[in-house]
Amino acid sequence: MSKWISIAASAALVLTLSACTTDGTNGVDNVDNIEEVDATGNINFSNFVPIELSANAENWDPSAPWKLPEGYIQTVVSDETDLNIYPTENDWHDMNVVNETGTNAGRYLYRTHEVRLGATAPTEWNDLGGAVSVVDLETGETKIIAQSTNFTAIDGIAWTPWGSIVFNSETTAGSFYELTLDPNDMMSGTVTERPAVGKLSHEGVQVDADGNVYVVDEHRGRTQGCTDTNGIGVTNLGDTQLPCGGGIYKFVPNTYGDLSSGNLYVLGFPDANRDGTGQGAWLGPIDPENARESGSDIGGASYQRPEDLQIIDGVLYAAITEGPRDEYGKEYYEGRVLAIDLETIKVTNFVKAGLNAPIELGKPGQDGHQTGFDSVDNLAKAPNGDLVMVEDNSPSDIWFASTQTNEFGASKSVKLFASLTDGSAEGTGIYFSPTDPETLYVNIQHSGAENGDGTWAITKP
């Protein structure tokens, strides 16, 4: 049975203090918990009472895998019972985007699938190839919109201001693609590779209003270095690696809306900064065919596994999933989110465990467990302008961070919104459609449940 849902805009809702009590009889403990209402009558999704602890996977419920604040509900949009692309394995639903502009804006949800082809994958995967799927949120129809044996580990996806979709591959020297949709059938289109944007271990992608494209290299640049034949990233001390790769990049097309040609730049710091923060600059142009090594060779900053990007009000946020490691292989800290001011190129630590978010200790159910911020992965813009973050971790938590910052550029408020009870799975692809501010879309991949990979909608009726 199809699990599709159609989320309509809510009716105007007005709450007044005279209608609320503080004794808990109507579910309101105090006036600080009252939902805010914006000018359109929509509930402010971000004004929630945070959950206190991450989910404990013991006796988890596949029909309700997310631990949520009181009053929020979760519904399957589409899972492997609707479309099972890889029948013998999980479909690894990864990232989401809708048609954000144009006719029927918000109706179609496009999803990448991160399955990895090759010698270790089931043989039938190689015959099928990687895929991008689409869900009609009005009718529930679900289908593959793009698939090729040249695709593997298809990951990031974004809507462009000119009405196309860009997506990419996370493999080493992975490709960047553009999907031009059929104006008469938004569930069909033509894919073109865009090598000028760079060959990288792609994940996050953002396109600004001027048509510039921002991408990352999901590589452990601080510990893995580079191993290209030219020796870039290798010191004169034998096999010791210098930081290399794991950068953040900006592609500037020669012509707005045309990704076939342009210049690729890498984020760097004129004054060496081990932390990768401070006054940055876009260095280049660099060679897109050898973007990791050429970017590092020109002085690009190396981060430890950057994964996703999100632009909010002229600031580019970057999820750095891991922290650098010491000589024993232990992380100095559990990842972070950077904030890059796109006008000044000033780079700051926006969210970081131990700075403005709690440090995670142990796992739920263990003695001494402390819920905390760990291995941040994907990012999204909330309707009120907050940054939403989901972890590549077990348990996989969802956090909201205010973009109001202190004098050092760190968020003033970081709150725990949800936690995934499926201990074997990961939440990914968090996304708010600009046409539907009351629904948070999030994918679950490598679920422990049969046919459990899919897309969920979290709402508050």
UniProtKB/TrEMBL annotation:
UniProt keyword annotations, A-Z: Signal
Keyword ATP-binding: no
Gene3D superfamilies registered for this protein in UniProt: TolB, C-terminal domain
Signal sequence residues: 1-21
Cross-referenced InterPro entries: 6-blade_b-propeller_TolB-like (IPR011042), PhoX (IPR008557)
Superkingdom of origin: Bacteria
Protein's UniProt name: DUF839 domain-containing protein
Source organism: Sulfurovum xiamenensis
